[in-house]
Amino acid sequence: MAEMFYDDDADLSVIQGKKVAIIGYGSQGHAHALNLRDSGAEVVVGLREGSSSRAKAAEQGLAVATIEDAVAQADVVMILTPDQAQRTVYAEQIEPNLKSDAALFFAHGFNIRYDYIKPGAGHDVCMVAPKGPGHTVRRQFEDGRGVPAIIAVEQDASGEAWALALSYAKAMGALRAGGIKTTFTEETETDLFGEQTVLCGGVSKLIQYGFETLTEAGYQPEIAYFEVLHELKLIVDLINEGGITKQRWSCSDTAEYGDYVSGPRVITPDVKENMKAVLADIQDGSFAKRFIDDQDAGAPEFERLRSEGQNHPVEKTGQELRKLFAWQKSDEDYQDGSAAR
Ligand code: NDP
Ligand code: MG
Ligand code: MG
Prior knowledge:
- By secondary structure, the chain is of the alpha/beta class.
- It contains 18 helices and nine strands.
- It has two domains: 7-182, Rossmann fold, CATH 3.40.50.720; 191-335, N-(1-d-carboxylethyl)-l-norvaline Dehydrogenase, domain 2.
- Helices cover 56% and strands 12% of the residues.
- The two termini are 24 Å apart.
């Protein structure tokens, strides 16, 4: 059973006594900076030269500095730039300016797990990873609630890294909901596995195959879109509320029976074997290497795959149909973080 931590298990005064540099002001960055500030910590946001986020952070009354200056003042440095940018930002702007005993914080273990960042022995290395997009993290905090977080200590140089990580998580509002203890390795490997095989990769491919099968058989694309994509949200909401059992209870008996007899014909045991192969690539670092090598080369594979995905017929059909749903946000509004990150 996982070890859980709540507000009473953490001491807010630990983080209130520190100067915290939040590097980056995107999805997670703005939520961390504002929640910590509102919890009484001294926050400075570190941004690159010419950053488009500077005005947004300043508007919220936050202190803003260059990454170098923010790091030089800080007892705690939370790195919230995109994962593929962290290695270079760390080497060029963070490490040369880091106080010898400053703690390094992350919201995802990728760069530590795969050794793209190797902090010196004098630094605490901690993770507080909220299990939700940054905008939800901020909204829940303002409403007096919190998004659960997973918490880890990779390196405990001070002997007090765990108390510091818990205090940070409390200031984020996360311990109102609960914090779960993990390790950088467990968080990174399970996060990558979940998004690749089920949440993002698995679901995307399942939708595309479903749409192709119906349209190739002569059914109208608009009808196919509703049946294999649009209704997915209703199903996922039920699963989220009460597990697969609630979803089966809520659907018709016809749907439930079809689930039992046809689900295993589509998702056959060799799918599980394929999942194991994906997990092996995550564990031995070959997925991370492929991703970072491609990013370093200007992301040619990433861009090609992105454009192929955007050109799938189910996307074109969806763009037209979604205009009928006036109450839904426009496609342009969906540039924000995703639950799977
Ligand atoms: P974002 O893409 O939202 O971060 C954008 C911020 O990073 C901006 O302020 C941007 O600067 C800055 N930035 C981008 N590139 C650089 C660079 N090369 N040098 C300096 N600054 C740069 O990131 P997320 O918030 O999505 O992710 C941050 C971390 O949080 C990651 O480790 C991610 O895995 C983790 N995480 C994310 C979740 C999410 O929901 N998004 C959920 C849980 C964890 P500018 O303003 O100048 O453009
Ligand atoms: Mg139906
Ligand atoms: Mg992820």
